Amino acid sequence: MKIAVCIKRVPDQDVRFKIAAGGKAVDEAGLKFDMSDFDGYAAEVAIQLTEKAGAGEVTVVSVGPDAVQETLRKALSMGAHRAVQLKHDTPVHDGYAIASALAAELKEGAYDLILTGRMAVDTQNRSVGAQLAELLDRPYIGAITKLDVEGGMVKARRELEGAFELVECTLPAVLSIDEGIARARYPSLKGIMAAKKKPMDVRPAQLGAQRYTLESLELPPERTGGRIIGEGPDAVPELVRLLKEEAKIL
Amino acid sequence: MSNSNNTFAFAESCLGNIRRASLEAVTAARQVADQTGGQVHAMIAGAPGIGQHAAKLAAHGADVVIVLEHAGFTHYNPEALAATIAARITSGYGAAFFAASAQGHDLVARSAAKLGVPYASDVTEFSIAGDTATVKHPGYTNKVIQTFSLKATPAIISLRAGAVLPKESAKAGTIETITSVIDPSSVRVKVTATEVSGGAKLDLGEAPVIISGGRGLKEAANFKLVEDLAAAFGNAAVGATRAVTDDGWRPHSDQIGQTGRLVSPDLYVACGISGAIQHLAGMRTAKTIVAINKDREAPIFKVADYGIVGDVLQVLPVLTDAVKKAKSG
Amino acid sequence: MHIVFALVVVAAFGLFAWNAWRLILELRMGRLDDSRWSDVGARLGNLLSIGIFQKKIFRDSVAGPMHAAIFWGFCVLTAGTIEFLVAGVFPSFSFAKVLPGVLYRFYTINQDVWGALVLLAVSFALFRRITKRVKRLMGAETHPNDPLLILSWIGALMITMFGDQAMAMVANPEPGIGLLRPISAVIAALSSVVVSPSAALTLERLFWVSHGLLVLSFLNYLPYSKHLHVVVSLPNVYLSNTSGPGQVGVMSAMDLEGDLEVFGAKDVEQLSWKSLLDGFACTECGRCTSVCPANITGKPLSPRKIMVNVRERLEEKSAAAGIGLIGRSAGGTAVTTAGATTARALLDTYITEDELWACTSCRACVTECPVSIDQLSVINELRRNLVLGESRFPEEILPAFESMEQKGSPWAFDPADRAKWADGMDIPTMAELHGRGEKPDVLYWVGCMGSFDDRAKKTTVAFAKIMKAAGVRFAILAQEEKCHGDPARRMGNEYLYQMLAKDAVGVLNTYAVTKVVTACPHCFHQMGNEFPQWGGHFDVIHHSTFIEELLAAGKVPLRADLHEPVSKFTYHDSCYLGRYNEVYDAPREALKRALPVMELVEMPRSRDRGMCCGAGGGRMFMEEHVAEGGKRINAERAEEALATGATTIAVACPFCMTMLADSVKARDADVTVLDIAEVVAGRLAV
Questions:
Q1: Does the beta-carbon distance from C662 to B243 stay under 8 Å?
Q2: What is the value of pTM for the model shown?
Q3: What domains sit in chain B, N to C, each tagged with a CATH number?
């Protein structure tokens, strides 16, 4: 089975971001970058499928500047077999353009499966997987939380509002992976060493026109914490009011 | 019949019920149409009978309600739906609105791709001027607000829940019945079963609300209070601290923290939890944190958005009743 | 007769020599370790104190004297055995001919006296093994019949020795011989009542032959028994790690650049030959296991089993390779095909993952071992293989690894918050001082717990206050401080560790730091003892020592409350401060100086016998799975602390703090757990 996994390099999310001068990017000083969480799950799923079959090849693809090679290497160290960087040096936010570049790369190569993460944790658009499937005219299942691939059939569970659906389709297909199926493995040192020798192709990204562009970034009002609203059961009405009106959760 | 001053809205439904998100999409479309002087065409799709909701869409500003009824649309059928929507939008709209729901995310991406355009995803604010839509969309785990400009026709936008509040603005709501451009029953991805969640226990990773208990509950039996509050929310899962799972009050799978599950729900209610480093590491990224603890100095209050100092055993029943009331009212 | 005896002696020694050579070949299957030959002085010192004077043996007040009697008896009786063997071949030989009379009498009297002591000790040992179920001598991995056989064998050696001597006296009474061998003489006197001189002559021959055969067969039985210990223990003590406090616990630096086939150790070949020798030296006395906090609380780990397994696997593997002991090569230990041996390995076949992850790296086993076996280095090497080679570890460690790599702390906190505790305290950062061209007296390395954990932050603040009150010019690194990777190293992730350690050393060297103080024993150990591997040579001091020195110098202004009620304290030794670095007195002295009226009570297990809190070796980041009948390590320790009746448990480590405070809280005890710094800061004159 030939599997392609589309991955994205994103900053670690567990920090307070700052906006860089110019207001069009987050300040990258001190930020650590890694594979987007969901892409990690997708890569793990792909690797497990080939391990289970004892055959097959996993290709990881990423659009971006040379820095994405580090992220591609990480996927290789997890066990992917080869990597392709679709080189583009400036940030791309147009999901359709990214999907187009990926489609241009992945339309050849006879991939049985193309996997993406449910979304990139930085831009949070959830757009590339489905658009890629449309551009390639392949069956698509999004936000998969359970997956079984056997005998040319995909059986999956996908999440919809308030319900889960069990769906199936035949290969080749495009799937986007949600959390819950597999946690990205921690690369062994053996894997890291092996990854250094695996092939990494670099090609220009065929993005086409970019029609969705970032204008500016701003920070939401800072979360304060430490707000004690009252004591004992008497404070409950105030809590409920705040949950309704301020947090908009109730 | 169509022109580019018109605005399209997709009215999402689930198992025959119209969703609040539909009304938000129609309301947003109405705002744009009022600006351009065009019409709002709202489309609803489902099993035969779904058209009954047309009046509600009209009440929120739909000039035309496009009704697509077929047994093949009982379940979400993205292939037939996206093809039909794309075919419809091609006939000429300046803008199109979808809900940024689980279905909506999927549907909007497919429809836009079929039309060969990018779209603005999960938008909290928008404005359209000429051929440019300017939108705001939170990114970076909602810690940074991004402003994008979308230069594509039509301007396709998916709206985050609550971005636009449904507003009544009665229009004719002329019904136009259409058929699917492809046979809804001969699609490539087949639904074999549907599990409605809510009955089954919600997974900690999936639940939008987590009610979590610690040693402050005094004994295992008191977790009933935590479960009651979770039940009152309806969409909540129950978590626990390491101390509690270590003592066997709850199974290890319920543990939230460094050595358990790392979660970021929309709401996290910490009941009788002091907030040891081990626990904070697992939940401090929750969007809203509520803490109930009798020790005013407990570290949990430093990360809590709303804190109540008091005996969790007294506060919980009152809170459960209040939440029940808020949910039903 | 003498020629036959000579042939038998030559054959027996030949066989022994051949097997001894086989054992050396087996050891050579292990990894090279050249560090064992230098430092002869210290090695001889260990040989004397730990070996000859049985220093560690005496840590057990019952078994100690018993074993010492047998050991010293063996040393003395070996002289007699030499005389016996030589005289067997050359009947006219006797030490009497080469030794002056006084010395000869000293020799013979000692033979008799020690022979009797050994017989007594062996009888007691047999009695103890058979009638008393001594817990530490039991365990699935032990060979319980072997000691019974060996003890009986030694007993028989003594009986035949006395029999031979006594019968010789009966057969051929010589005046004055009773002064040479008083005990034999008494036996002779008693037995002469029933034994005629001619019968005695026959009996003497019988005893003589039996003794000879027992000596030679005993010698050749040893290599096949755990009692190889008799031969290997002294060399093992001599070759043990001599690097001294601090250095002794340093983990070896792996060369990660080289093209390693196997990371860490999966099987015996990847262990150092010294670890294999440790396997030979182990006689399954179980002292290690009896002090292992994991074992005590019902976890699957037994350090003794680790060593027994090393030996068993080596026997299996060497037999398969055709270099095993005579009689073992043909599949002695269930080895049938080559395939079976390759699929088997020390890791998994013998030692399971769960055993390895149960270790807290507290060094209690290493400290306790009477023959200086290093169980911990085997555990560490196997952990390295699990993590680096196979990425196999309890899943709950993953966030710690990822967070160390991404955020420079095992907990996923925002690095920007690292110095939040110092808000409003007016503490300069190294960068600020550097910018002004200044240098502090000392860099305060706060550590991740001290920076992010709310409880530990109180210690951090307390210590900073003490330094300020004492006028110490110190600075912090703030956001430039990142985990040095010690938890990663202890959990087997040498790759992540080296990345972090090199970064940290780089930062410290940029500021030309010379002196560092830290309140975390893990930081203290890592930075002081292991950073030199990466070019980081700093004078690192633990805050307990630092505070003690400030107090001793009278630099800390304390309140002079004369009516302070007497409070009862107990102090819990941190493993990385205590056993790793032998800092036992400073924290205790600091307490006494700060609270002159305090009563300090010691727990039964304290100082180098101190029991781990359960957090070391990365256990802090793992789940503790408590088996039926077992308990949590911190519960065991907290109960011990509470049993002293102390109202305050003092600690000097943020990890110990968490573990003990958690457990004390769970017991609803009205006892506070305080760091040394908090105790002292509480006494500061405002």
A1: yes
A2: 0.89
A3: 7-186 (3.40.50.620), 209-328 (3.40.50.1220)
